[in-house]
Amino acid sequence: MKQYQSSKNLIRSIIGMVAAGMVTGIASAQKPIVSIKAAPERIVFKNSAFNKPLVVKSKEEAAKYFGKEAVASLVKTVDFKKQFVIVFAWRGSGGDQLNYTVAETFPEQISFSRQFGRTRDLRPHVKVFALRSNVKWSVQGRK
C-alpha cells in the first residue's frame, strides 16, 4: 500500500512540474512587447516617424518594408496570428532614444516616448517591436 501511495505522489509531482513548465512557457510566449532585430529597408523613413509608426499585420505587409532575409527572420520570430509588428523610423540627433513603459493592466497598455538627444548631428533611427495583438499602445510627445 505504501509503495502505491509513493508512486501516486511521484506521478502527481511530475505532473505538477510539467504543468508549471507549460505555464512558464506560455507566460514567456505571451509577452506584451518584444524587441525585434530585423532591419527594414530605407523606404520606412518615407512612411514613418517617431510619433507615427508603421503597423505591420502580415507577412505580405512586411514584404513592403523589409528585404527577403528580414521577412524570413520576422516570420520565424513573430506569429502574425497573435502579434503585429510596429516600426518606428525617424531622423534626429544621434543621442535620440525611444523608450516605452508597460502599464500592468489587462490587456497591457504600452506608451512610447522619444527622448531627444542633445547633439546636432542628424542620424537615422529605427526601432522594431512585436506587440501582442490585444495590447493597446500609444505614442506620447510632440505631434
Fold and architecture overview:
- The chain is of the alpha+beta class and 143 residues long.
- It folds into 2 domains: 1-30; 33-140, no CATH class.
- The chain contains 4 helices and 7 strands.
- It has helices at residues 2-29, 44-47, 59-65, 68-77, and strands spanning 33-36, 54-56, 83-93, 97-103, 109-115, 122-132, 136-140.
- The strands form 2 sheets. A 4-stranded antiparallel beta sheet has the order 1-6-3-2. The protein has a 3-stranded mixed beta sheet with strand order 4-5-7, with no helix packed on it.
- The longest helix has 28 residues, at 2-29.
- The termini are far apart.
Gist of the model:
This protein is an alpha+beta fold.
Spell out the key features of this protein.
34% strand, 143 residues, 4-stranded antiparallel β-sheet, 2 domains, 3-stranded mixed β-sheet, alpha+beta
Order of helices and strands: HEHEHHEEEEE
Outline: globular
What's the count of strands? 7
Number of helices: 4
Q: What share of residues is helical?
A: 25-40%
Whole-number mean pLDDT? 83
What is the rounded Rg?
Answer: 21 Å
Topology:
Blueprint: H1 2-29, E1 33-36, H2 44-47, E2 54-56, H3 59-65, H4 68-77, E3 83-93, E4 97-103, E5 109-115, E6 122-132, E7 136-140
Parallel strand pairs: 5-7
Antiparallel strand pairs: 1-6, 2-3, 3-6, 4-5
